[in-house]
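Objective 1b: paired records.
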Amino acid sequence: MSAPLACAALLLVHDLLLAADEPTPVTDLVEVWVVLSEPALATLPRDANEQRNLLRQRLVRQQDDVMPQLAALGAVEIARVQWARNAIAVRIPPAAIEAAKKIDGVTAVRGVSHRNRIGD
């Protein structure tokens, strides 16, 4: 192999390796609600303060456990909700949605059609 050809091949490999390390562009992500298995805070009576505090701790723990797994799939967190539903809104590569559905504690992954409503 000639020197110029070898240099060109090395540059091509270098560029491919750099491209593989780059994060997915935000424009290539879709917004979804990742619904989790713990019940929402609204499922408890208003006067159940102690139960609500314990449930809130479980919700935060579950969301904190699931989010790094979603991030490993390329997801970027947008929001978390706990009152009406236990869910995390994320931007995620479309190819990672099936893997997100398989994370322990995830009951559904639904597209966001309106950012201010979680029942989409």
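Objective 1b, second protein:
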Amino acid sequence: MTRRGSLAYYLTAWICGCFFMSAAVWAKDMLGGTRDAFSTRSAFGLLFFYFYGLVFGALAAFLGAFLLRRVMGALRCKTPSHWAAAGAILAPGIIAILGLWGRHNDTTQRAGTRVLGLLTYGPKTVVEAGWWLAIPAGAATAYLLGRVQRAFVPRAEPQASA
């Protein structure tokens, strides 16, 4: 384990963040159907969205976790509720930027953009399902990331009296 908990922090961002986002897209599909997403209305559908969410949402999860950690460190916010509020603001922005970049990449059709298309496919799917789905997913993920960050903060050791 790393000293400041980076491994636990980024794994939490990837695993939990992709689950929350996948669950939001799956719930939207259950209620109203998404256009270009695979429609399954069962527990298999949630596993389907989650598996592909882990693959295609990794870039957005890692980038969001990195930016969130830097912003909250600069603002010196320590409570998980502050982290949740920041995540609710930051996540839709990251999803929108990466999703629109993915859409633009689809229209250019240049050679060598397949990797970029794979990296932005997850955010592009979320934008097509509804950009606002990133608000609760980002808040839930950021709350957990705030808890992980607090768990690894170095504590001042009590001084023994002489």
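Residues 80-108 form the longest helix (29 residues). Helices lie at 6-31, 43-56, 58-75, 80-108, 114-119, 121-129, 134-151.
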